[in-house]
Amino acid sequence: DVEGGIMLTGRLALLSLFERRVAIGESPAGWGNTAGHAALRAWLARRAWVEGGVGLSELVYRSSGIPDVKTTWWSPAYEASGGYEIFRRPTVVLQVLARYTTAMFEGRRIQTTSVEIGLLGRR
Question: Is it the case that residue 28 has pLDDT exceeding 60?
Fold first, then answer.
């Protein structure tokens, strides 16, 4: 994941996120998923935060019968996450977080969950 944003207030930030979960070349089923979201992050306490956002998700599928042809679908996507800042200094933050994303493609729901450790630069 790649994320960046700006602080709106002392406890609220506006973020943009880019996620790439599975790539076609790494998937035995021949599919991949990426998503981009705009999100709001709110600190509930000094180091604990929650986040929610909306955006677009892309599902790419490559048929095994015709490997040179791929089909792409776009769909609205949603994300929710929560985290804790383990180490916080004026220019850097080390955090642990859990993130859930979901999108529907022609009646099929794609859902991802992840537990991550993130290193953020701050200004």
Answer: no
pTM above 0.90, yes or no: no
Q: Answer whether 6's CB lies under 8 Å from 14's CB.
A: yes
In this structure, how many other beta carbons lie within 10 angstroms of the beta carbon of residue 78? 17
Compute CA 46 distance to the chain's CA centroid, rounded to the nearest angstrom.
23
- Could you give phi then psi for residue 74, rounded to 5 degrees? -115, 145
Helix (H) or strand (E) holding 25: none
Write out the two tokens for 76: 């609205």
Residue 82 one-letter amino acid? G
Dmax (CA) of the chain: 54
Cα–Cα distance between 117 and 49 in angstroms, integer? Answer: 14
